[in-house]
């Protein structure tokens, strides 16, 4: 029988712990604060940011949301980041990606105070992660590790294949999988758009993490019997319904679940964990900054 992993249930249990830590910190006079910044009118980005703010409310974290017009200058965004860096009530800063083309992404990431960089995208934090001394683990790959731990899925000695080489998921996921300790010690292969014979690689995977952002690109034929399949994709595809779209993953769920030993659905798989780990990192940030 294939296990369909319930990401909401795992995220709820993490959020229960986070809520308790928020209370402890707040009682000690440090209420964790998270600022989200959006410089986009993309519907999906707006939805993600509002979900992050809602999670703050539910957990007692002080959320603040900042919108910068996508037509504004890069300096308008940098000035706002500078203000948030200087604000002691803000412990975490998240600039929702992508930013418009006229704003250099790297400059944005480097502008955020690394101690407030709860995404873990600042080069200092990326360097620390690669060195095995992470300050904040990036939320989505960290969430994938939490899923594996909650389901009792061993990574040590296993062949893991990550499909996608993004800075947000693919690269940090592979890095975490090869590190020493729980959720690591795997043999990780990273595949991407130039990989020749992708299916030959994915069929070797005991653990397959799909994070390419291509709707349903992995089907059952590409999966080893009994493998754990973690689908990080959240793709909007046109649909004949009220919203005009539906969400599908990078994995074709129906055929994949016939082969997988365990699989995350979309929605309700990795997505809730990304938000839970952001809340977790915000509490870490508040705690670091209160020392
Ligand atoms: N865009 C898509 N995923 C993410 C994320 O985890 N953090 C930020 N800041 N932007 C994103």
Automatic annotation (TrEMBL):
Keyword terms, alphabetized: Amino-acid biosynthesis, Histidine biosynthesis, Hydrolase, Methionine biosynthesis, Multifunctional enzyme, NADP, One-carbon metabolism, Oxidoreductase, Purine biosynthesis
Reactions catalysed: (6R)-5,10-methenyltetrahydrofolate + H2O = (6R)-10-formyltetrahydrofolate + H(+); (6R)-5,10-methylene-5,6,7,8-tetrahydrofolate + NADP(+) = (6R)-5,10-methenyltetrahydrofolate + NADPH
One GO MF term attached to the UniProt entry: methenyltetrahydrofolate cyclohydrolase activity
Domain Tetrahydrofolate dehydrogenase/cyclohydrolase NAD(P)-binding: 138-288
KW Oxidoreductase (keyword) present: yes
EC numbers on record: 1.5.1.5, 3.5.4.9
Pathway connected to this protein: One-carbon metabolism; tetrahydrofolate interconversion
Binding site for NADP(+): 164-166, 234
Record GO cellular component, one term: cytosol
Signal sequence annotation: none
NCBIfam families: PRK14167.1
Main function: Catalyzes the oxidation of 5,10-methylenetetrahydrofolate to 5,10-methenyltetrahydrofolate and then the hydrolysis of 5,10-methenyltetrahydrofolate to 10-formyltetrahydrofolate.
Protein known as: Bifunctional protein FolD
Classification of source organism: Archaea, Methanobacteriati, Methanobacteriota, Stenosarchaea group, Halobacteria
GN (gene name): folD
